[in-house]
Amino acid sequence: MLKKQGMYLPEFEHDNCGAGFICSLEGNKSNDIIHKALQILERLEHRGAVSSDGKTGDGAGILTDIPHELFVKDCPFDLPEFGQYAAGNVFLPKKENQRNYCISVFEKYIKEQGLNILGWRTVPVDDSVLGSIAQQTEPMVKQIFINKSNVEQKDFEFRLKLFIARKKAEHEIYNSKLSESNFFYLPSLSTKIIIYKGLLIPEDIKLYYKDLENPLFVTRLALVHQRFSTNTFPTWDLAQPFRYMCHNGEINTLRGNVSRMLSREALLASNWFGEDIKSILPIILPNKSDSASMDMAVELLLMTGRSLPEVMMMLIPEAWEKNDEMSETKKAFYEYNSCLMEPWDGPASIPFTDGNFIGAVLDRNGLRPSRYSVTKDGYVIMSSEIGVIELEPENVAQHGRLEPGKMFLVDMNEGRIVNDEEIKEDIASRNPYRKWLDDELVYLKEIPYNDCPVFLNQEPLNKRKVLFGYTQEDINTVILPMANQAKEPIGSMGSDTPLALLSERPQLIYNYFKQLFAQVTNPPLDGIREELITDISLTLGSDYNIFEINETHCKKLKIQNPVISKQDLDKIKSYDHPNFKITSVPILYDISKGHNGLEDALDALLETASTHVDQGTNILILSDRDVTKDQAPIPALLACSFINSGLQKLGKRSKISIIIESAEPREVHHFALLFGYGASAINPYMVNEIIEDEVLAIDPKADTEKAIANYNKAVGKGILKVMNKIGISTLNSYRGSQLFECIGINTQVVEKYFPNTATRIQGVDLHQLEKEISKRYASAYTKKSIDAALDLEMGGQYRWRRNGEHHLFNPLSIAKLQDSVRTNKPQKYKEYAEMINNQSKQLMTIRGLFEFTNYDPIPLEEVEPWTNIVKRFKTGAMSYGSISKEAHENLAIAMNRIGGKSNSGEGGEDQERFYKNANGDWKNSAIKQVASGRFGVTSNYLSNAQEIQIKMAQGAKPGEGGQLPGPKVNPDIAKTRNSTPYVGLISPPPHHDIYSIEDLSQLIYDLKSANRQARINVKLVSEVGVGTVAAGVAKAKADVVLISGYDGGTGASPLTSLKHAGLPWELGLAEAQQTLVMNDLRSRIVVECDGQLKTGRDVAVACLLGAEEFGFATAPLVASGCVMMRACHLNTCPVGIATQNPELRKKFKGKPEHVVNFMYFIAQELREIMSKLGFRTVDEMVGKVEKLDRNSAIEHYKSRGIDLSPILHKVEVADDVDILNTEQQDHQLERALDFEIIDKAHPALFRKEPTVLDLKINNENRAVGAILSNEISKIYGAQGLPDNTLKINFKGSAGQSFGAFATKGLTLNVIGNTNDYLGKGLSGAKITVRIPDESTIIPEDNIIIGNVALYGATSGAVYINGKAGERFCVRNSGATAVVEGIGDHGCEYMTGGVAVILGAVGRNFGAGMSGGIAYVYDPKKTFVNKCNKEGLNLDPLSDEAHVLELKSLIENHYNNTLSPLAQRILEQWETSVQQFVRVLPEEYRQALIRLEEENLVKK
Amino acid sequence: MGKTTGFMEYKRVDESYDAVDKRLKHYKEFTIPVKEKELQNQGARCMDCGIPFCHSGCPLGNLIPDFNDNVYRGNWEKAAKILHSTNNFPEFTGRLCPAPCEQACVLGINEDPVSIENIEKNIVETAFNKGWIKAQVPAIRTEKTIAVVGSGPSGLAAAQQLNRAGHLVTVFERDAKVGGLLRYGIPDFKLEKSVIDRRIDVLEEEGIVFKPNTNVGVDVTVEELKTNFDAVLLCGGATARRVLPVDGVDLKGLYQAMDFLKLNNEYVDGLKSFDDIVSAKGKNVIVIGGGDTGSDCIGTSNRHGAQSVTNFEILDKPTEGRPAHQPWPFWPMKMKTSSSHQEGVERHWSVSTKKFIGDKNGQLTALVTCEVEWIFKEGERPQLKELPGTEKTWPCDMVLLALGFTGPGSQLVDQLGVETDFRTNVKATTKDYRTTTPGVFAAGDIRRGQSLIVWAISEGRQAAHHIDAFLMGSSDLPLKDDNDLPRI
C-alpha cells in the first residue's frame, strides 16, 4: 500500500469486486469445476479495471475443497482421512532466515495447542506470469498439514486450537519487527477447504498455482473472487476469498464495527479458550480491508458455537424493524441480536462457505446483483451476472436471484438448496428470544414518569444562550422551523462563509467537522422513499460476552428516537431497575484555569467515568447543566468523543452507554457528530427551553411538548439523512462510526480526543479551542449589558448581516460585479476582484491563504489569448426548472459565443435548442447532464452533447437527491423532462444504476456508446478519499473528472448539508491530482474544478493545484442579475432567475454579453497572473504547485496553526509520468456488437427498409443498441425510424444495459435472458425477452432480466416473459412494460408510462411514484401489503377504457412472447380482469384532471 | 422569515398627505398614517433577502429585514427592540431620512421598494404610544465625565450611548433649546418639535445633563471643559454657510435660509411673534439652492403666504429615474419632488445667479441669472461653463439662500487647537473619531461636513464606542461594521 503523503490517506482506498461460485449439489467432485469457476471471473472482466502497468491484477483467488486425492499423492508423508486433518497455504517471507523464523514460531504454537504437524509441502508455482508489481510482494507459498491431537478430538475443538495457534503466531510475527513479517499470512487453515489466491488476474491463477491444473485436483465447490481496487497498490493477503467469505460491495460502517469489536474484546470469556482468549486479541487486525475485517469477525463468531448462516444473519440482518410480514420468531431473533451486534452495513453480496454449506447473503437494500442458476444435472452457479457460464436451455432447472436481506444456501451434504425462510426460521427458533426480550428489554416509553424536575440555581436563559453561542439566526432559522414543522429547514445557493478555522467569530467545535458521504464506490440511500430499510432506534446499557447466548444481552434500554426530551431524560435519571445503574457526570471545567483547566478536566472526567464503570454504572450521562460563572462547559462533543475513545483504550467502553445532556447541540450536524462519536442518546435541554420560551411568547397556551417533539423528530429525520448520505441505514451502525473529516484542528488534539479522524491541514490546538469558549464566556459574563442592544448576536451564517459572519458575496462585491459586466469596464471588475481576492484582512478561504511565488515574468502579449483560455471555462449544472428558461438560455448563448461550455443540468433540454438561431446564437448546452433522475435523457439528447456529465454528487448537498414539486412542473418543463405536467419529480439520492465503481464504469460505457464524440465527465465532490475515487473514475474510463467544492450552489438543500458536508475544492483537487499522478493515471483524464470560483486568481490557484478546466455557476448568475436572495427553493426569485413564475420571469434582465464580459474579465486576470509567473499557456501551468506559497502576511490567531504543505505536496514520480491530460481514454467500443449490426442494417438505417437480423449474444455484449440508436438519432433526431424498421433477434444472455437509450424504429428480441439495466433510458424502441423454446422452466417463477430495468425510460415498450429483479421501472416516465413478476421497489419514482405486472411483486412497490399507471395481477390479494401506499390509489378496474388498455397490452405481451401466463389470463379474461389492481398516483390523477381542464379552456 | 409571496401580493403604500390648501394653513405635520393592517402588508413585502442590501445601504446598519418581519407578524414590541438596537432616534430618521435603504432595497430593482422608512416611523410611534420607550437608567456608573458639545442628532445619539455605558454625560447647546438642526433647521410641518421634546425627556430621565444657552468657548472656557471632563465630543455640526460671491448680496431682502427657518421655528414654538421674524407674506420669493433646506424654505414661504415662490438650482435637472452611472443599489442623484415642492413652486435647473439688483433704498428688486452647462471628464472634477446670451432678470422681493454649509464655523475648533482638513472640517477618522487633541473627539457634520441625519446618528453611536474604549480600555457599546455601501 502506498504511504500516506500529501493529501493522500491510504485508509480511504476502496475495492469492489466480482465474485461467484459454482458447486455440485450432489457432491460430485471434478476438476472441471475449477475451470468453470475461473471462467466466471473471466466473463466478468468488464466489471473491473486495469491498473497503469496493464498486467498486475488487484487480486484474485479461488476457494475449493481440500484436494485430498492430490495431497495424498503428492505429500511425502502420510495423510489421515479427508476431514481428519487440516491443511492450508502459508504465505512466507522470501528470505530464508526470516522464513525459518516464521515457520518455527508457527510450529511452536501448533505444538503448544497439542496438535501434530504432519509436514510441509512446497506449492508448485510459476512466477513468470506475475506482473512486476506483484513480483515485488510475492511471498513464498508452502502448505502445512496438521493432525488432530488425537482421533477422538472433536472437530470444533480442533478448529479452535488451529485458530488459537494461528492467531498467536500472527501476533508474535507481526510484532517481531522483521522486515518481511508482513509476508506471513494464512489464506486458510481448515479441514475442509483451501484457498489459492494472490495478486493475479483471473486467467493466471491456474497458471501460477500449478495444483489447479492437476487432474487429481477435484472439488465439489469453487468460490472465486476478483478484486478491483480504486487504487493500484493492493497486496497479496487482501486478495479474496477470505477464510469464510468473499465480498462484493463495501462496508460503510467499517470503522464503527471495528472499534466496537475492539470494545467487545474486554468482555470476551469462554471456557473453550480459557486464558488463551487474551492471546488472540485483537480479533480484527488493523489496516485490513473492509472484507478482511469482516471475515475476521465471522471467524471469531464461529468460535462462539454459532453456525455460519447464523453469524451471517447477525452481521447482515434483514431490514426487520419495519417489516410487518416477518414472523415474530425471526423478528425476535433480529431484535435480540441487535442488542449484541450492530449491522455491518453497506452494499454487499457475500458468498460464504464453511465447506459444508455454501451460500450467499445480500444486504438489506439489495444493492449488489447476485444471480444464480440451478441445472438439471446438479450444479448451482452464482455470480453477479447471468450468462457467465453457458448453459443449454434445456438443462436449466431454475434461474433465480438473491433478494435483499435474503440468504441463499446450498447444503452440499444433503444435496439440496435450503430456502431463506427455512434456514432462518430454524435458526431463529433455537432459543426463546422473544421471551428473553419480553423479560429483560425495557422501552423508554414504558418507564413511568413522575414529574419534570425544576432546575434551581440555573443561570438565566439569556445568559446561557450567549455563553453557548446561540444567535438569533440559530433560533429563527434553525430551531423554530423544526419545532413548527418537524422538518429540517431548507435553504438555497451555496455557502460563501469562511471555514470555522478561518472565521473570526468564536466557533462551536462541531463546525470543524465535515460529514463524509457516499460517492461512486457505494451509494447514498433514500431514507424517505425507502424508509423500510432504515431505523434510528438504539439500545442502551452494558454489552455482554458474545460467547454467551442467553437473556443477559437483553438487559438494555431501547429508545426509538434517541433525541430525547428533558422529560425523557428525567425518566431515565430516576429509573430504578436492577439492570441499570445510571450516573450523571458534569462536564465542566474551571474557566479561570483556561486551557490547562480544560485539559485537566477532561483527563479527570475520563478517570471519573472509568471509576463509575468499575462501580457498575452502565449508563453515563454527561451533563453541562450546571454551568456557572466559574465552571464553564466542556464542549459536549469533545467530552463524548474522549470518553468514547478513552474508555475503549481502557477496555471499558462496552460496559456503558453515553447520554449527552447538553445545551450545545442545536443543528442536525451537531447531533450527527455526537452519535458519530459514540453517544447513544441526546437531550438538547437548552433547545427545549428555547422552544418553550419562544412558543409561549407567541401563544401562552401553546403545546410546548408537541413543539419539542416536533423538533426531536426533525432531528431524527435529519440524522437519518446524514446517515443515508454515507449509505448507512441504521443508527445502530452509524453510532461511533466517526464518518467525519476534521478540518482545522491539529493532529495532537485529534489524536488524543478524536482518534482515527482525518485532519490534514492542521489548525487550532486545545488552547485555541478553549479561547473560543472563553470568548463566549466573556460575552456572557464580563461584557457589560448595554440597554437597547440586542441580547443575542444576529448570526449571519445563512443570510448576510453586518457584524455577522463574513460572506464573499456581500452587497458591495455583488454590486461591483454587476456594474462591471453591465458597463464592460475592466476597472470596475478590478475593484470587484480585489474585494474577493484581498482576503489577507478577512480570511475566508484556503486559496486566500496562498500567495503566488517564484515569479518569472514574461510580457503579457506572449500569454495565450483570452479567447483560447475561455474555451476551458464552463458554467455550472443548473437545470431548466431550477432556473428559468431565460436565465438558462442566456448562459448557453453566452458560452457558445465564446466557445466555452454551458451545462444543461438535470432537466433535459428542449430539442429546439439543438439547432442554431438565425443570428448565429446557439442555445444548445454543450454539456448534457445525466443525474439520478434521468430527466429528459434520451438518445437524441445525448447525441447532441459535446460532453456528458454524470453527476455523482453536488457540492451543496452531496449524497442527497432533489425534488421539483408538482406546481413547478409547468407544461414546458414537463416537455423537456419527458414527464407529465404538474407531477412532482424526484431525483433519488443514488443513481440506481451506480452502486459501485464497476457500475459507474458501465454507465460510462453506456453513455460513450450513446455518443462516441462526447467526452464523459464524472462530477465528484471534494471529501477525504476523493483522490482514490478519482483514480477509480480514471480507471473506469471517464474522460473528465470534476472536483467540486462543497460550497457550490443549489436550488434547494437542507441547511445542514449546505454547510457541513464536503470540503473546499482546494483539498479535494490537490488530493485528486496527487493520487492520479501517484498512480500514473493523470495523463488519461482531464481534471476540472468548480465551487465558488469567482476571480482569475481563484482560477490560477485551481490550475496550479492541478485543474485544467474550470466551472463557474454562482458568479455568472450574479453577472446575469442574481442578488443572492437565497429564495431559489421558494420559486420567488425577484430577478427572474430561479423561478418559473411567468410574472417574475419577466424581470430577468441578464444578457449574454454580461456573462461573456465576466468570462473575459476572468481570463484577463488569469493572463496577468500567468505573465507574472511566466506561463505562456494554461497547459504549462497545470499542477505547478511550486508557484504557490503560504501567505506569510496573515496574522490571525487561528490561522497560525494551519499547515498547507500537504496541499502543496508534489508527488515524486518518474519523468515520463505526466501531470496533466495528454492522452485519450481507450474506451474499447470497437468490440461492440452494434458495429456488426450497423454493417448489416444499412437498408434499415439509410433507406428505412424493414430489416430482420439474427445474432448470438452473451454477457460481454454490453449496451447493445446504444451506438445504433446514436446513429439513428444523428440522422433522424428524436423522431427515430418508423416502428419495427429494424428487428433483431438475439439468442443467449445479453450483457448489462441491453437496449440502453434504444430509439424508435428498433425492435430488439432476446431469446434467453439479460442482465441488469435492460432498457435503461429507453427512447422509443421495443424490447422483448422470452425464454427459449427448448427451456422447460416456468417463466413467471424465474428471473430472466436483472435489476433496475427501464431506469429513466422515456418511451417505448418492453415485454418480459419472466420475472425481473429489484427496482423495475424506477424513474420510468413514458415506457410501457409488461412483466411476469418483479422484486422490491418496483415502479419507484415513476412519473409516467404504464407497467403491467402479471406475477409476484416485491416490497415497497410504488414508493415515490408520482405518475404513470401500474396494473398488477393480484389473484392472491397480497399486493396491498407490498405497496408503499403513500399517495397511491389502488382500485379495481372499472372504466372500460382501462380494461381495453390492459387487455391490449396483455395481448401484445402474448403476441410478442407467447407467454403461457398471458395466455391463461386472456383465456379467462372475465375472471382475471377482476383480479387486477390499478395503481394510480393521486398526484398524477390530479394532474390529468388539470390538464383536461386546461385543454377545455384552450378549445 | 417574512411572507415569501408578500411582494407579489401587495403594492407599496405610502403615507398620504392632507390636501395642499388645508395643510398650508398650519405648521403641523400633515401626513395621514397608513392603517396597521396595511403596515403589516407592507412589512410582508420585505423578501428577507439572502443579502439585504438595505441593511448595507443604511448608514446605521438598521436590521431592516428583521424588524419588517416582526411588523408583518404584528410583533411590534420586538420590532421596536430590533429597531432601537441600531438607531437611537428612529422617530427622526423615520420622518427625515432620504432613505438610502430604500434605494438599496432588492425589490427596488424592478418594483417599488419596501416602504422601510414609513415602517420605521410607525414602529417607533407605536412604541411611544404603547409606552414601551422608557428611560433606562444605567445600573452602574463609571464616574467618567464626558462633555458633548452640540445637541444635534449626533450629539444626542452619542450622549445616549455613552450614558448607557455608565458615563456621566453633559450636553452643551448654545441655543435656547436642544436639538440643533432638528429643532431650528427643520420646519415643524416635517418634524413637530414635541417629537424632539418627547425624546429629550427620556434622555434627561436617563441621567444626561443638558446645558442649553451655553456656548462652549464663550460661556464655558476650554480650560473648564478640559478640567471638568474626561473626554470631549465635538458635535457642533456644519454651520458655516456657503456665500454667493456676487454683486448685491448685501441688499435688503436677501436672507440666509437658516436664519429664515430658525426664526420661523421659534415663531411656531411661541418664542417669537410673527412680526419678529422674516416673513415671506405677499412677497415674490426666490429660493436659491435645490436641496432639502431650499425645499423647507419653499414650504415655509408658502405657509407665510408668499405671492410666488421660485427655486433655482445650479446643477442640471436630474433624471426622473436612476442615472446610468449610479446603478442599484447605490444612492442615485435623481429628481426629487418633496411635499413642499407640491405646495407650489416654479423650479429651474442649470441656473447660476450673476448678481442681485436693488433699488435706491438698498432693497432687492430683482436678480440676474444665466444658464450653465456642466462638463464632465473622467477623472476630473466637473467644470462649470456659463452659456453666453442666456442672461435673464427675475424681479423679486425676497431671496433665500440655501446654498449649504462649508464647515464647522465655530471658534471652539480653534480654541481647542484641533486640526482641520482642507474642507475646514475637524480632522478625525472613522477608525476612532479622535481629533488631533488628546481626549477630544468629533462626530457628525463637524467631522464629515454637511450630511444626513442618519449619518449624524451613526457617527454619534460609533464615536461613543470609541470614547468608551478610550476611557475604559475596551467598550461593549455596539458598533456597526464598515460594510456601508459607498457613494459612487
Kindly list the characteristics that best describe this protein:
heterodimer; A: 1499 residues; alpha/beta; 10-stranded mixed beta sheet; 8-stranded parallel beta sheet; 51 strands; 33% helix; B: 488 residues; 19 helices
Sum this structure up briefly.
The complex is a heterodimer of chains A (1499) and B (488). By secondary structure, chain A is α/β, with parallel strands linked by helices.
Description:
The complex is a heterodimer of chains A (1499) and B (488). Chain A is 33% helix and 17% strand. In chain A, α17 crosses α18 (636-649) and α31 runs parallel beside α42 (1266-1276). Chain A is built from 47 helices and 51 strands. Chain A is an alpha/beta fold and 1499 residues long. The longest helix of chain A is centred in the middle third of the chain and has 22 residues, at 704-725. Chain B has a five-stranded parallel sheet, with helices on both faces. In chain B, α6 packs across α9 and α7 runs antiparallel to α9 (116-129). The longest helix of chain B has 20 residues, at 453-472. Chains A and B meet through α15 and α25 of A and α4 and α6 of B.
